[in-house]
Amino acid sequence: MTVMTSSLEGKVALVAGATRGAGRGIAVELGAAGATVYVTGRSTRERRSEMNRPETIEETAELVTAAGGRGIAVPVDHLEREQVRALVERIDAEQGALDVLVNDIWGGELLFSWKDRLWEHSLDDGLRILRLAIDTHIITSHYALPLLIRKPGGLVVEITDGTAEYNAANYRVSFFYDLAKTSVNRMAFGQAKELAPHGATAVSLTPGWLRSEIMLGHYGVTEANWRDALAQQPHFAISETPAFVGRAVAALAADPEVSRWNGQSLSSGQLAQVYGFTDVDGSRPDCWRYMVEVQDPGLPADVTGYR
Q1: Which domains does the chain have, with CATH numbers?
Q2: Is the terminal CB of the chain with fewer CB neighbours within 10 Å at N or C?
């Protein structure tokens, strides 16, 4: 399955943190499946966030609509509880329901250091990372869940980096980054316990090595020539587009038996094997299995059997 059918027509989704990367990919694929998608973030055509990048939520909303859904851009700082409250009230007033909540808020790429240890790292930057990665998700769920559980079948997807299994066994390089990404997995587990009696489901979901706008820029390539980056980092061959994790979320949202996943930590590659979707090139990259079996043991890059 390379193109989603309109299996989510009539459904309402909120992708919190949809300016770029995984959030944009998820919003667009939900739109491709027919959903109405509210996309939020701090970067608009009038004002950029401290990320100071060109991508905007208006662009994301337009991509959602072009894909076949209905994209609605709402500027929101998810650390500001009154802005989040107003967002949910608007969705309630306009749609009367919320079927899917995707917590993808992050924005910490410029704040963490890969080399500084806890006592060397900027404390202000470290605590800001935790606020951006954890507090934002909690605030958003706090206000959105009462609308989501109004009818059975709601889905919460917490986007993180790394499965719970992988993160439990591997230090994610930097103290604050590690704490942020492992915490999101646990937040999904906790929400799953509280949502289950209301007929709703919560999961955590990780993409693999994501060819986001920032990552492509890091290697000095574009999506059109991304393989040129393999000269710098051969393991980048396992990477995937944001559409891949987007299709994972769309597949979960369309699954009438999605509750079977409640409380679990999932990956895009894992769900591709279950639901049969592919990345835009027709492949199914299984990044986290590759990480464990090839990259982490220090073997030469070889994606044979992994995508």
Answers
A1: 12-294 (3.40.50.720)
A2: N
